[in-house]
Hints:
Layout: E1 4-11, E2 14-19, H1 30-45, E3 51-55, E4 60-62, H2 67-70, H3 75-81, H4 84-91, E5 97-101, E6 104-106, H5 108-115, E7 118-122, E8 126-128, H6 145-150, H7 152-161, E9 165-166, H8 167-173, E10 178-180, H9 185-197, H10 201-213, H11 219-233, H12 237-247
Parallel strand pairs: 2-3, 3-5, 4-6, 5-7, 6-8, 7-10
Antiparallel strand pairs: 1-2, 8-9
Hexanoyl-coenzyme A binds at residues 24-25, 27, 63-68, 83, 104, 106-108, 111, 130-131, 133-134, 139-140.
Amino acid sequence: MEFILVEKHVKPFVSLIRLNRPKELNALNLQLMQEIKGALLDLDEDENTRVIIITGNERAFAAGADIKQMAGKGAVDMLKIDQFTTWDTIKKTKKPIIAAVSGFCLGGGNELAMICDMIIASETAQFGQPEINIGVMPGAGGTQRLTRAVGKAKAMEMVLTGSFISAQVALALGLVNKVVPVELYLEEAFKLAAKLAEKSPIAIQMAKESVLKSFEMPLQEALFFERKNFYMLFATEDQKEGMAAFVEKRKADFKGK
Ligand code: HXC
């Protein structure tokens, strides 16, 4: 790995992916995205990882796709590179992903954060889709996930003007889960990860999958999908353990079985 650092099991059942192109503000070149994809595929298979955190550094989560790498490309080059199959694989990660965001979270960086399931932001985080300033538009979900997160008016403003919003505004609009002082954003992400890591990983996976269906399916079908996942969980040892622990007034010990 050249552009990311992966720390497996940095806390119990929690693994960390750190974007590591600090001089370029973690601009997402094609190799970096391939590395994220590879790491997520690996962590998704790893028995001892239940939650994944993706972070950058204090100055930047990621300032977008690598403009220098894209600048000379034509439409056919972009079509042949087909970078979005990489993004599609990232999107299919079964385990929950938390983005721990500080500093610039722009363009493809914001799109990557929005593919994650929850976002913990530092007070210094700035979110934006500034592609319009360089003569293009978002291509990895910025017009869709952002609109669903913050609503049409603000999404239009961000996508058409390229203006950034602060962490506090992102919180008020529902783009992020929590805003904390800059020295605490990673710690806060670990606290959230620890909460998820102690649940049944199968129930977490089914629940994540069901929530995501609300973006993709009509309501009636999505409710049906939810119900099937709910029934399926009654085939797990974790359901027996969770309900027995409640009745016996003790903490459940979920095994992911
Ligand atoms: C390549 C980038 C970059 C990017 C920053 N850098 N963003 N390189 N691609 N997206 C590089 C700069 O060229 C510079 O390198 C170094 O990082 C530091 O950046 P500065 O501009 O000097 O820092 P600063 O003045 O603090 O400004 C920070 C900034 C600005 C506001 C974030 O860098 C900026 O506007 N970046 C571009 C943001 C953007 O347009 N993102 C969307 C990209 S398109 P040197 O070598 O000069 O020191 C996109 C499409 C996604 O994301 C489609 C799906 C994949």
